[in-house]
Amino acid sequence: MMASKSDIYRAEPGGCLGGGAVFRTDDLGRSWRQLDLDVSSVLTLTSSAPSSIQAVVTTSDTCEAVGIASSDSGQTWTEQRDSSWHRYADDARRLHAPTRSVPNPCPDRSLPVVELQGLSTTDAAVLCPDGEVLRTVDGRGFGQQSKVPDAMALAFESRDLGWLLVRDGEQCPAYVLNRSQDGGVTWAQGGCVGSANALASGAPPALAFSDSLHGLATIGDVAYSTDNGGFTWRQVVTRR
């Protein structure tokens, strides 16, 4: 989750029995610091400013979701109402909408959605395991926008502008970025992201944009940044 061009938060999702963690970087991924946050899982992260973070987490093996917020870059947290889009840690068959629970809209509801991104209280985008991109504008029913085989990560910057990371073994060593300007109905190919070694690691990729130009893609512990909307990418050199 990119709060600005250089302030980025990422989560280890964990599960009902633990493993969840949140990390922050203020230098575009060159160095990361784990936040002092005792949670079992992290279900979603959002931000309205570099120092303002909202999250939904679970804190015990009951897997009950709790909304929390920080106004000081994650140094302190307060509990808040859970009113965001997110997955459930213990139930792949449903999703949490801001005001209700809705069924998993993917063809196989037994599999967790790959990505769920809320764009408003009623608008959200879903990436399914088979590459289907689904949207809702009323917070209830999802419709298929497109299907992109081997799509592995999704990010929307607005209702219309979005990106997909698609596994590609022919033109790119690891992934190719696809870009949509019509809400996910059509996609145009952008630049190559990652290396063959990163792809071979089996680590799932993640993708985030702070605006129409600046984005970060991660494959395991390796990060790649773009400042031109995803047409070119460069590996971020990690500080040790």
Structure description:
- With 240 residues, this protein is mainly β.
- The protein is built from 1 helix and 22 strands.
- The chain has one helix at residues 196-200; strands spanning 8-12, 21-25, 33-34, 41-49, 52-58, 65-70, 78-80, 86-87, 94-96, 101-103, 115-118, 124-127, 132-136, 143-147, 151-156, 162-167, 175-180, 188-193, 205-209, 215-219, 222-226, 234-235.
- A 4-stranded antiparallel beta sheet has the order 4-5-6-7, with no helix packed on it.
- The longest helix has 5 residues, at 196-200.
- It is globular.
Essential attributes:
single chain; 22 strands; globular
Summarize the structure.
With 240 residues, this protein is mostly beta strands. It has one helix at 196-200; strands at 8-12, 21-25, 33-34, 41-49, 52-58, 65-70, 78-80, 86-87, 94-96, 101-103, 115-118, 124-127, 132-136, 143-147, 151-156, 162-167, 175-180, 188-193, 205-209, 215-219, 222-226, 234-235.
SSE topology sketch:
Elements: E1 8-12, E2 21-25, E3 33-34, E4 41-49, E5 52-58, E6 65-70, E7 78-80, E8 86-87, E9 94-96, E10 101-103, E11 115-118, E12 124-127, E13 132-136, E14 143-147, E15 151-156, E16 162-167, E17 175-180, E18 188-193, H1 196-200, E19 205-209, E20 215-219, E21 222-226, E22 234-235
Antiparallel strand pairs: 1-2, 2-3, 4-5, 5-6, 6-7, 8-9, 9-10, 11-12, 12-13, 13-14, 15-16, 16-17, 17-18, 19-20, 20-21, 21-22
